[in-house]
Specification:
Mean pLDDT: 82
Oligomer: single chain
Number of strands: 9
Largest sheet: 5 strands, antiparallel
Low-confidence stretches: 3-22
Number of domains: 1
Number of helices: 3
Strand content: 35-45%
Structural class: mainly beta
Helix content: 10-25%
Radius of gyration: 28 Å
Length: 201
Amino acid sequence: MNVTKGLLILIVMSFLVIGCGDDSTTAPSVPPVPAELLGEAVWTTGGGIAAVGYDGFDVSFGIYTTSNYQTSVPDLYFFQDVLMQRGDIGDSLIIDSENCVDFLVITDLIANGIDDRLGLLTPFSPDGNMSRGARSESYFWAGGLDGQNNPDFAGYEITQVVAYVDELFLTTPGTNPNGNGIWTDYRLGVRFAVMGRPSPE
């Protein structure tokens, strides 16, 4: 009789031990929502310059926070002084928290609901003659996803900004308006795609 009671006690204890893990209140981890294309825009610059010997552009893309966009350069950069040449057409540059020191600060700025100014600097390589442009976010991003994110990507977590070299040419003497051969026609088109997901609640 005592042996039987002992076996019953062991069996009950075994069930209790086996069932301990079933009462856990820890929720299973939920994978993050996949990033999607929130918006993209092409920044194009072109014209002609009375100079020769260029092999590309040292491109910088940034955002203004305090400085005057009409007279100064951006305060923070997605990327800076990236050489883009004819052979780079079709290539892309991925900007994220792994390779951009200010990425989290910048992406907060392009998702803060304020119409900040973006800046693209395109000095010629190698001598540094600069073409500079500034555009408002509302104009450049044109509403983003479904045209609803004016002026920027407020409500979204930005995971990447990808720059694609869509167009680049430098032609000497090109149109040669002065008739002396000292002239270069140029054009650069860089497409910027913003990837992200809805911000966590």
